[in-house]
Design brief:
- By secondary structure, the protein is an all-alpha fold.
- It has one domain (18-223).
- The protein has helices spanning 7-12, 16-57, 63-72, 79-96, 102-124, 128-157, 165-224.
- Helix 4 packs parallel to helix 7 (165-224), helix 5 packs antiparallel against helix 7 and helix 6 runs antiparallel to helix 7 (165-224).
- The protein is rod-shaped, with a radius of gyration of 29 Å.
């Protein structure tokens, strides 16, 4: 009896629709686990790169040197370094156009950093919508398979003169497997989505804080050296 009611045996004797639902849920579950693993390592790398750059930023290195390093390391840079590079790039372009107004320089750098921040946030949130969809839809797909399986089981029982628990149990068990697999696919996706959403919120807060701090540094440098807006001037080491 235990062998007859094993999950593999139940699936082999289930109706085609139930088998199709289970196959779909298994594929979705594998895809969600792959997305979870990729996102885990991506966020881990993102945090490490941000921490490394922030350490270097506050070490006293001049902004020009940091910008040159960020330009050379653009392919392997983290979100914070790319945001810094975007702000400095816009700042340098405005200076090359002989913009001397401190407010214009600062506003241009801030807008460039905000645009870069939004791009980084969109990249960090990639695949989160997929996990949310799997977590919310999978139980209902499994439930559909269960309902269909129960209907199929009762249809088969209608031709029997005597119905006992032994005749009902296999059909019901076949149908319930779909719900179980639906939950198996949904639960990790929901847990992963919630955890990654919290991690991305923390990263976003850290990046927004950095934008404000860097903007304050630029403002202090512009106030201390009003001629920094000139075409030939260089950015002084940050007073950090």
């Amino acid at each position: 009896m235990n062998q007859d009611l094993s999950i593999i045996n139940l699936l082999l004797h289930a109706s085609f629709v139930v088998q199709l639902v289970v196959a779909l849920l298994v594929i979705v579950s594998i895809a969600s686990w792959a997305a979870i693993i990729r996102k885990y390592f991506a966020l881990r790398r993102m945090r490490a790169l941000n921490e490394d750059f922030e350490r270097e930023f506050w070490s006293g290195t001049s902004l020009n040197e940091l910008f040159a390093s960020a330009a050379q390391n653009a392919k392997f840079a983290g979100p914070m370094e790319r945001i810094f590079a975007s702000g400095m790039r816009e700042y340098q372009k405005l200076r090359e156009r002989h913009v001397t107004d401190a407010g214009t320089l600062l506003d241009g750098a801030r807008r460039a950093m905000r645009a870069s921040f939004q791009r980084e946030l969109d990249a960090a949130e990639q695949n989160l919508s997929f996990l949310a969809t799997v977590g919310s839809v999978s139980p209902y797909v499994g439930l559909f398979g269960t309902v269909w399986g129960i209907m199929h089981a009762f249809t088969g029982l209608a031709a029997l003169a005597q119905v006992t628990l032994a005749t009902v149990a296999p059909g019901i068990a076949e149908a319930l497997v779909a719900t179980a697999i639906g939950l198996f696919a949904a639960i990790p996706a929901v847990v992963g989505y919630n955890r990654f959403a919290r991690e991305i919120d923390k990263i976003a807060i850290a990046l927004e804080t950095y934008i404000e701090e860097f903007s304050n540094i630029l403002q202090r440098n512009l106030s201390a050296n009003p001629a920094a807006g000139g075409a030939g001037s260089s950015v002084a080491p940050a007073n950090r």
